[in-house]
Each structure stands twice: as structure tokens, then as C-alpha cells.
Amino acid sequence: MESIKELRKKIAKSEVDWHTPRHDVIVRRISIYFTWLLLHTPLSANQVTVLQIIVGVIGSLLLIPPNYGWNLLGILLLQFGYVLDCCDGEVARYRKQSSVGGVFLDLIGHEIVIPFMYVGLALGEFLRSGRFELIIFGFLAAFFSLRFDISAMFQVVNTLFLRADHPSYDIDKLQSTTTSRTSEIAKSRIPLWRIIFRYPESMNIITLFLVIDWIFIYSFPKPFSLVYVFLLVFGIMIPIARLLSVFHIFRTGEIEKRFWEIVRTVKKDDNP
Fold first, then answer.
1. Would you say 45 and 91 are in contact if contact means Cβ atoms under 8 Å apart?
2. Taking residues 125-135, what's their average pLDDT?
3. 185 pLDDT exceeds 70?
4. pTM for this one?
5. Cis peptide before 200 (omega within 30 of 0)
């Protein structure tokens, strides 16, 4: 098998991706070594993804005990889960196992691990402090971290394709000359406040706050801590951001724009 240096060049990620997380650049310097080990096993790329989900869920559950030792082990497993999240793509590119199904499984993993992470963190901090509102904040952060706005939008887009002969879904009536918000966001620079709230940056903040709380366990006025502040902020801001997204998609006709953008792309490919 190739050396680590040769392997890194062979399975380098495409430069097409927009706004790769800064954390991702650092982690990929580490993940290559685990990818090298995984390539010596019979595990497929999708099996590595499943392993990543399992590791992430176990790490999230270890955030529940009120003991900081277990919490730190849990956050380390979550960080390792993200390393595996990079490894699955590297294994797929090396073994030429890249597929739409693999991307789907990878996204499902995020939709499972991230809510578990917020709930586990909230339960652990509740057991330490006895502040019941933490459970509410944790639940809100977990529930609204699910991208149901995007999911619902593409379910409707799928319905438009399935019922294209229905008068209400006439393609000609749905044409839009404007670019969809999805494409605009993909090509625009992401503001710092949005970066902070996305994964894995949110996980990195949790890691930092847990370590600080553990080091200065007797310094913060009880029952408050940095983890408490994190849950308070994320438990309020994530729901607001998700609801604003739903409102924007509904009011700006984003569904119709996205549908027509797909149709226009297909027509362009059919008529080179």
C-alpha cells in the first residue's frame, strides 16, 4: 500500500466543495492515519460511516453522567467520531465506493449524533446543577438542529416531480428567473455567527467549555457554568434560526425556485 504521503494525495477531497470547516482541514491531517489502518481491514466506506454513528452516540451518552471524567471521555469519542466521519469519505475515494447512498448515510449520521449530543450534554449538566430549564434548552437545541425545513422543501420538490401533470404543478407556471437562495448561500461567504452554530464547530465549543468547567469546577458561581451558558444560547438561537428559515422558504417561494433550478439543470444536460 502507498505511504501516508502518497495516500493523502491519492484520496484528496475535491476542491469543488464550498466552505470546508476549518476544523475539517486539521482533522484530515489526523484522519489519514486512521484511514490507512481502515484500508487494512475489510470494512467498506458505508460500514465506517455506521461505526462513526455508533461511536458518536456512545460519546453522547457518556455526556449524561454528572462526572466530568465520563463527560470528557464522551467528548473525546465524539471528536473521534468526526475523525471517522472524514475517514469514510477517504475510504470511499480510495476503494471507488463513492455513492449517493453513502452521502445519504453520512447525513443521516449527523441527524442522529448531533441531537444526541445536545440531549446528553443537557442531561449531564442538569444532574450536576439541578436546573430543570437545561433539559428544555437541550431538547430545543436537539429538536431544532434537525433540518426539517430542508427535508420538507425537498419532499415538496419530489412531489412536484411525481405530480408534474397536475395543473397546480405546471412547470411553466413555476419558472423563476432568479437564482434560488440555496445556490446563493452555497456560493457566498458564511458569516461567523452561522459558523459557530454549525457542526463540528458546536462540538468544539462544547469540548472547550467542558474542559474549562472541569478545570475551574469550584470557580464558577453555582449552578451556572460555561456549559449552562452554551445550552442557554444554543437552546434559544437554534430554534429561532430554524423558524426563520422555514418562514423565508415559505414567503420567498424557495421551493418553486429550487424545483425550477433542478428542471433547468436537467434540460441543460439534455441539450448540450
1. yes
2. 94
3. no
4. 0.88
5. yes
The set of cell numbers assigned to 208 is 472547550
Domain encompassing residue 76:
4-270
The domain that contains 231 carries what CATH number?
1.20.120.1760
Distance (Å, whole) CA 112 – CA 118: 11
- HSE-up of 120 (CA within 13 Å, CB side)? 28
Q: If DSSP codes are grouped into helix, strand and coil, which group holds residue 187?
A: helix
Class of residue 70 by CB neighbours under 10 A (exposed 0-12, middle 13-18, buried 19+) = middle
Q: What does the angle CA 73 – CA 79 – CA 81 come to, to the nearest 5 degrees?
A: 105
HSE-CB of 127 using CA atoms within 13 angstroms: 13
The tens digit of pLDDT for each residue in 46-99 reads: 999 999 999 999 999 999 999 999 999 999 999 999 999 999 999 999 999 999
CA distance 32 to 35: 5
Cα 181 to Cα 142: distance, rounded to the nearest angstrom: 25
Alpha-carbon distance 93 to 85, whole Å? 13
Which residues are within 8 A (CB) of 29 and not within 5 positions of it... i.e. 6 or more apart?
none
CA–CA gap between residue 113 and residue 53 (Å, rounded): 6
Contact 83, 34 (CB under 8 A): yes
Instruction: Record the cell numbers describing residue 172, joined without a space.
Output: 411553466
> How many separate domains does the chain show?
1
Whole-angstrom distance, CA of residue 60 vs CA of residue 50: 15
Distance (Å, whole) CA 213 – CA 225: 6
Q: d(Cα 99, Cα 266) in Å, to the nearest integer?
A: 20
